[in-house]
Design brief:
This protein has about 240 residues and is an alpha+beta fold. It has seven helices and eleven strands. Strands 1, 2, 3, 4, 5, 6, 7 and 8 form an eight-stranded antiparallel β-sheet that branches.
Amino acid sequence: MSRAVRALVRGLDRAALASLLPAGRPPAAEGAWPYASLVLVAVDHDLSPILLMSDLAEHTKAIAADPRVSLLFDGTQGLDQPLTGPRVTLLGRAARTADERIARRFLARHPAAQMYAGFKDFNFYRVTVERAHLVAGFGRIRWLTDTELGVVAAPGLAEAEPGIVSHMNDDHSDAVQLYASRLLGLAGDGWRMTGIDAEGIDLRCGGTVARLPFDAPLAEAAEARKVLVALVGQARAVPVP
């Protein structure tokens, strides 16, 4: 189940964020109050969600008073019976971060955010996950601790990621397009890679995101090139419809 959690969380670019509004917000509310709304999200190599929020946002004010948050990742879109589909709630603590690598990963996932990310009243937040709740369908429910999530890391990959992504997009855009069209069966031209971690690569075309998992996790950053080349071979072997 831990693999299902990681795959679902990494495959989505948005989530419902819940925080605890302090007493008095909204006006006339008695005591603290739960508050949830939609946020854009990227996920770091260690599965920590990354957020970009305005200082004026209700969530930002709530986090300043109490850093505990929940994020619901909904994988039920398109199902005739949504409650049979998977969804994951991550519980953790949000903290503001000035880490430039974190910012780059978010902006690669959400390029349109570039136009406001530099505003003085916008800041990045990283959520340290403490627990996850997976509902994989009726009767398939489980709580997992941060340790049980089994996050796989590839030493050096976080540092090498920007170079790998830019190289693939600038010099091998045809390969990225093959990943999307042949291996994932996705329509559209102009697919770009937005990230790579030990278990797969993230792709984007306009407002659509996709996830291509590796057959086996990378053990180190140096393995990335070999795996990406192998995926091109697999894609070219897929018959054109």
